[in-house]
Amino acid sequence: MSRMGDVLAGFHAAWEFGSDSVLIRYERGIRTPRLFHALGERRIPLAALAGVTLSPGRRGTVVLRAEPRPGADPLIEAAAGQLKEAHDPYRLVLPAERETLAEYYADELRARLDDDPGPAERHLVAPPEAPLQFKAYDGKASFDGTTVHFRWFWTGASTAKWKAGDQSFAVTELSGVEWRSPDALDGHLRLLPRDGGTAAVQADQDPAAVVFGLGYGPVHESLPFAAAVLAAVRERATAAVPAAAVPRRDPADIAERIRHLGELYQAGLVTDEEFSSKKAELLAEL
């Protein structure tokens, strides 16, 4: 950006521009979405962005929006396109009279982004920090950073869940998280095991899922929870992948190359130092 530390303030957030990131600080006003209250602030690396748009908003406003790369932000990945427009954490609403200034910063951001970055290979935006917890309709969900716990409520949990008992899931046992917005009729949070065994079970019968309802599992509680679990699952999966082994050379091939090196040395085509150094390199490949 032109000056590190420049700040562009909107109705529910302020963006502070740095040399390689944008720090988004969310307001805590009465009309600010509660998801923004929960997020507090987020640092978005420019490497996590695919583009920037500026468009007319409602009632004399303009909207500056950063477009995250697919897979770069665990919160957006967990939301899977279900966030309402007003809850979009990458959206900055400004008065229309600030359009020129907003366009200036949009151009500055675009100039620093890759032309076609594509999906991110890993999460580039920090997830919400554990410990986290929330109340669903049929149980309480908690996450300490390594394990998810479900404790069932006798007033809401199904017979299947009571028979299964309270549940604990280490992130190493999971392949992902399925979040369905509480604004939908089938809102729930489901943990996806590596064996994929519960995918076809209804959430109210699945011991690996908690069900939302009116006043239970609100977006500002359940979505950051889902994002934190998803980020932990991905981090553990990446750490578990062993480094590719370096294939060893054929000993016969090494011996032949050393013999050839000796012939060059005897012919005076390589120095003592070059001979010793190259021979050591070849022996190290065994």
Q: Would you list the SSEs in sequence order as H and E?
A: EEEHEEEHEHEEEHEEEEHHH
What integer is the average pLDDT?
89
Global shape: flat
Which structural class matches the secondary elements? alpha+beta
CATH class of the largest domain: Mainly Beta
Count of domains: 3
Strand count: 14
Return residue spans where pLDDT drops below 50 for at least 5 consecutive residues. Answer: none
**Portion in helices:** 25-40%
Explained architecture:
This protein has 286 residues and is an alpha+beta fold. It has 3 domains: 6-112, PH-domain like; 132-240, PH-domain like; 251-284. It contains 7 helices and 14 strands. It has helices at 34-39, 74-79, 99-112, 159-164, 219-240, 251-266, 272-284, and strands spanning 6-9, 13-17, 21-26, 41-45, 49-56, 61-68, 91-95, 132-135, 139-143, 147-152, 167-170, 174-180, 188-193, 209-211. Strands 1-2-3-4 form a 4-stranded antiparallel beta sheet. The mean pLDDT is 89. Residues 256-283 form the SHOCT domain.
Brief sketch in words of this structure:
This protein is an alpha+beta fold. It contains seven helices and 14 strands. It has three domains: 6-112, PH-domain like (Roll); 132-240, PH-domain like; 251-284.
